[in-house]
Specification:
single chain, alpha/beta, Purple Acid Phosphatase, chain A, domain 2, four-stranded mixed β-sheet, globular
Length: 135
């Protein structure tokens, strides 16, 4: 199952710039593939400034074909996309390598967009905060 959340801030100051982002999650299970593709079409129609995924893009973290299916719909987005790994995406160090190769992004990072600071924490291979790797 996956969900979609699009946020448009309500600003009482009309001159202030707004920042709109969409959150898309959990593509796993091929039966959801048509809905996954439609979600990206629906997101694009909202013209967000940023799109975030919240993980579980791949059913099999090491299967290149599964990654291709997961990432292909994002090619239609005009907004930048940030990929956040889920427990299906990274199972071990090999999965971290594939995630980096397929998304071009680190599994843990931070970035600023639209006056908002985002922090991505990958806890897929850590059992506690102490086990999280240094960025």
């Amino acid at each position: 199952m996956f969900s979609l959340l699009a946020c448009r801030p309500v600003d009482p100051h009309p001159a202030a710039e707004t920042f709109v982002f969409a959150v898309i999650g959990d593509r796993t299970d091929e039966s959801w593939e048509p809905a996954w593709r439609k979600t990206f079409v629906d997101v694009e129609a909202q013209h967000p400034d940023l799109v975030l995924t919240v993980g579980d893009l791949a059913d099999d973290a090491l299967d290149p074909e599964d990654w291709a299916l997961a990432l292909e719909p994002a090619k239609g987005l005009s907004a930048p996309i940030e990929y956040v790994p889920g427990n299906h995406d990274i199972l071990d160090e090999a999965g971290q390598t594939v995630f980096r190769e397929k998304t071009g992004q680190a599994p843990y990072r931070s970035f600023d967009r639209g006056g908002v600071h985002f922090v991505v924490v990958d806890n897929s291979v850590a059992e506690s905060w102490a086990e999280l790797p240094e960025p």
